[in-house]
Predict the 3D structure of the following.
Amino acid sequence: MQYTVELLELWWASLAATMKDRSLVFPISVVLGAFAGVICWMLAAYSARLWNKRFYLKLGLQILCGLAALLSVVYALTFASTKNTAEAVKNRLTVWQEKAMTEQKWQDDAFKDAWDAVAKTGLEEGVTLSPSPRTDSSIHTLPMTNPTTKNTIATVYAHSALVQFTTQNPYLASILAPPGEIPGDILKQDILVWFTGHPGEPYMAPRGVEVVVKMLQDIAGKQVEPVASYTRRLSLALFIITQLLVFGAIGWFAHRSNRPAL
């Protein structure tokens, strides 16, 4: 269900970006989609006469043709809106980032996981599996005196953020296909940037979200265009399939009505 909802949200975001575009892409797409739908409607009505010259489209078949024409407009808009897919994906990433930054439960769980990971290394005095934030809610800080500790914490936070993103955004995750783990060079660079600009300050869980979003934005630049191209081909295929189904239904009813009653 979440997958479908997210797909529709991304589609709407792409369409909204197309509507806001000052070019004529949106109105032209509507006109072309409507024109194609009406032409197919007329051809469908004409094709019925090939099977039965006395056959005329009744209300039910007219409604079917009207629905196919409406879908033609939707397909045309979807085809045109793919040029804004990259922008829509980046907007969705920004929305998720803002949401994740305020999710305290996730941050608390990530902190506990980071504490456990550091405790297992034995590199930080006082950081043990017991007591820990899981048993003592008053523990809110994690020592980071060792370079390995910093890397361990950054790895846990980034991995936790990536899991959170994949869980909450299954469709977007399927599009971007992020790696299972954050590349080490990305983490090292972020650790260097953070502690250079914030000496003495702790490396917190929200930083993992920023790392994941930056990585996904880079991936989006490579992954989104193939997805947009696939969507365009799919829109065209669905248009053809829809019209074939309508023509087939009309042909079947026309041929059936031409058969003598028993």
About this structure: The mean pLDDT is 87. The radius of gyration is 28 Å. DSSP finds nine helices and no strands in the chain. The first helix runs from residue 2 to 20.
